[in-house]
């Protein structure tokens, strides 16, 4: 990999010089990355596991230790993110899951921070611009995402993938196409959709910037290179090398669809897209607010469309910066084009649902959710730092840029305060468990303490191969109790065959009542016949009961089952464990 202290000559692809080596020395880069990691910690300082961390790291632990939850249906299902499991899962052999999560967070945040610093460097932004860009970016994703995407939070496969993708984007900005393909290939190895969509966006950007220099000015769009400069080649050995590296992420994903009939594959797509994850995949299910907030980001992107700036004292640097900003802008437009295709596919659900769900599973809005706010942040900071004071500025854009920074600081601070004030993992907060209105921090800490007490008892008092029926509104039982579950709403498998089985198990256990989706309409029925059936079908002896779900219908202590926790001097106001009844033949 070329040294990041080298500065690309933007009009001559894949050539580098070290003219700004002193300005961007390695120790400056390290300081910027450390500052970025510190910013991430302020924003996402809640204890592990964050949302999705339990989902990823329990599979990573099983990848390295096959005895861990070896009889859990989800843990042993097909593994799509083997590169992540291999590179980020091995610490589970020596450390707890929580420590492993923090190791992964710090490494992944550093990767993202390095990628962001590289983007700022190639846009020729001032040193340490990446810190304020990061703040605006994080705030932009939080307040403006279209489909629920996030980058900074817990550790999962897409976070290191974004870090590598940002380095690739910096090479696109610097017109170093050959290097970009390698970085995008490595990103795809960690998360095939994150890196794969980057390849598509970069290819579109390449066509526009390297083949469109003649017609861009006619459309009053900023050119990315001088028309006299030789265009870069598209096909090169680095493109194919990047594709080969991407196979580490692509092959496991493709293998998940093996041995499934067309009918079952379609049914699995419906379960994944329209039942389990419509809030990420089907735009017909998105609230109007999501459309409005993302549209505001797109408007900002267009308002800060890269303008040709000129500094008489830095003619060549101004030209390089203009071309770099134009390539960033066209990359962002390419992500919007991908999202536009996703909108067409999503709305086709009304007349061809099979077609829509089969294609919507590729997360068409993921990249635009991350790149559009990033581009806005970069262009805003460029606007405020690039033009010399002697050149008049449009007052409206100046005020808008400064207002965006002020609003970003407010949004970031609000998110950081919310993360810190509860003092419990994000994955255990009511808001992220679908439990109606979120009560105060004190109430949630008490309920979380009860959850930990329950899981500690399960881990200590039951055999390692025990299987449990667990409440619908939780996602961390395996993380804390280290015991298998019959089914878990959050832990949805990704291979088609297991996905069908997951839906069958979920419908079998959680037979929804009439009315809105609430605590009390999705629960395990207290019915002897059904409970015996569960025991016979899944080999499960024990059921964890959330007392808040049961209490509107019966006194907790009057359930017609044998309670095994809490008993005697044990105390737990929120959760109980009951033994399921035997069949008649017992």
TrEMBL record:
The chain crosses the membrane at residues 25-44, 93-116, 123-141, 180-209, 230-251, 290-307, 328-351, 363-384, 396-417. Residues 449-508 form the DUF6798 domain. Pfam families: DUF6798. It comes from the Bacteria. Keywords: Membrane, Transmembrane, Transmembrane helix. This is DUF6798 domain-containing protein.
């Amino acid at each position: 990999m070329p040294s990041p202290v080298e500065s690309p000559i933007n009009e001559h692809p894949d050539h580098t010089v070290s003219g700004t080596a002193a300005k961007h020395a390695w120790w400056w880069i390290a300081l910027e990355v450390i500052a970025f990691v510190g910013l991430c910690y302020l924003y996402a300082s809640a204890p592990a596991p964050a949302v999705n961390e339990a989902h990823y790291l329990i599979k990573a632990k099983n990848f390295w230790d096959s005895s861990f939850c070896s009889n859990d249906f989800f843990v042993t299902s097909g593994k799509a993110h083997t590169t992540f499991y291999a590179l980020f899962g091995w610490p589970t052999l020596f450390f707890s899951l929580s420590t492993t999560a923090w190791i992964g967070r710090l490494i992944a945040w550093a990767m993202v921070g390095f990628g962001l610093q590289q983007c700022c460097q190639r846009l020729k932004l001032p040193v340490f611009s990446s810190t304020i860009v990061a703040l605006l970016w994080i705030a932009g994703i939080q307040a403006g995402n279209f489909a629920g995407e996030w980058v900074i939070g817990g550790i999962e496969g897409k976070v290191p993938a974004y870090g590598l993708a940002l380095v690739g984007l910096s090479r696109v900005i610097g017109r170093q196409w050959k290097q970009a393909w390698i970085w995008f290939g490595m990103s795809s190895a960690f998360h095939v959709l994150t890196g794969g969509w980057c390849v598509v966006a970069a290819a579109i950007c390449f066509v526009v910037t390297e083949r469109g220099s003649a017609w861009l000015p006619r459309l009053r769009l900023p050119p990315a290179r001088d028309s006299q400069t030789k265009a870069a080649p598209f096909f090169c050995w680095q493109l194919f090398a990047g594709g080969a590296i991407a196979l580490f992420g692509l092959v496991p994903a493709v293998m998940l669809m093996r041995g499934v009939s067309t009918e079952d594959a379609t049914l699995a797509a419906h379960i994944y897209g329209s039942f389990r994850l419509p809030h990420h995949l089907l735009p017909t299910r998105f609230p109007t607010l999501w459309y409005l907030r993302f549209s505001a980001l797109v408007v900002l992107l267009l308002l800060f469309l890269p303008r040709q700036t000129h500094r008489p004292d830095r003619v060549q640097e101004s030209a390089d910066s203009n071309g770099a900003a134009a390539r960033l802008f066209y990359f962002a437009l390419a992500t919007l084009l991908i999202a536009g295709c996703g909108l067409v596919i999503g709305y086709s659900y009304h007349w061809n649902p099979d077609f829509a769900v089969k294609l919507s599973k590729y997360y068409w809005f993921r990249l635009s959710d991350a790149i559009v706010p990033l581009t806005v942040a970069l262009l805003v900071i460029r606007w405020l730092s690039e033009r010399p004071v002697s050149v008049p500025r449009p007052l409206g854009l100046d005020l808008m840029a400064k207002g965006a920074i002020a609003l970003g600081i407010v949004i970031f601070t609000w998110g950081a305060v919310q993360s810190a004030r509860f003092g419990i993992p994000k994955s255990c907060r009511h808001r992220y468990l679908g439990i109606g209105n979120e009560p105060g921090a004190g109430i949630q800490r008490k309920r979380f303490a009860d959850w930990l007490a329950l899981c500690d008892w399960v881990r200590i008092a039951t055999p390692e191969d025990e299987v449990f029926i667990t409440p619908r509104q939780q996602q961390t039982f395996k993380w804390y109790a280290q015991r298998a579950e019959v089914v878990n709403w959050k832990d949805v498998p990704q291979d088609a065959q297991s996905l069908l089985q997951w839906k069958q198990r979920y419908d079998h256990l959680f037979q929804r009542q009439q009315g809105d989706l609430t605590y009390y309409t999705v629960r395990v029925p207290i019915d002897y016949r059904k409970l015996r059936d569960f025991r016979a079908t899944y080999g499960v002896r024990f059921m964890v009961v959330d007392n808040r779900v049961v209490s509107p219908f019966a006194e907790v202590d009057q359930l017609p089952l044998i309670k095994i926790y809490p008993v005697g001097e044990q105390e737990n106001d929120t959760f109980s464990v009951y033994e399921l009844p035997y069949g008649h033949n017992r």
